Amino acid sequence: MFYVTKEFIFDAAHNLVSYHGKCEKLHGHTYKVQITVVGEPAEEGMVIDFLELKAIARSKAIDLLDHSYINEIISQPTAENIARWIFERVSPELERENCRVYEVTVWETPTSSAKYRVGEI
């Protein structure tokens, strides 16, 4: 199996309404996102073309979140919930005979991230 990863950066504001602490106040982050696809190379020798992965990720998720108030998109926009939301948005577009989305990782800060994968506990 091969794992192909593309990174994205976006800026957005949010607040955590079901949290008691400083993050319940409106604030912003420069988020980093990694989308990883797992699979075997197709006829052209690639699991997925990086340009195609980039276009799908941007149109289905990243561009919608960039410079947004994420609470208008995701009701409790924790890093965990953002990772799941991105995974669910891009997965149908990236499901192929030879590959599928493996995981999405969202960094809220350079040292704090959350990963989402289907079927793991």
TrEMBL record:
The active site is at residues 23, 67, 108. This is 6-carboxy-5,6,7,8-tetrahydropterin synthase. Zn(2+) binds at residues 14, 27, 29. Belongs to the PTPS family. QueD subfamily. Its cofactor is Zn(2+). Pathway: Purine metabolism; 7-cyano-7-deazaguanine biosynthesis. The keyword Lyase applies. The keyword Metal-binding applies. The lineage of its organism: Bacteria, Thermotogati, Thermotogota, Thermotogae, Kosmotogales. Keywords: Lyase, Metal-binding, Queuosine biosynthesis, Zinc. Binds 1 zinc ion per subunit. One of its GO terms (molecular function) is metal ion binding. Its EC number is 4.-.-.-. GO terms for biological process: tRNA queuosine(34) biosynthetic process. It catalyses: 7,8-dihydroneopterin 3'-triphosphate + H2O = 6-carboxy-5,6,7,8-tetrahydropterin + triphosphate + acetaldehyde + 2 H(+). SUPFAM superfamilies: Tetrahydrobiopterin biosynthesis enzymes-like. InterPro entries: 6-PTP_synth/QueD, 6-PTP_synth/QueD_sf.
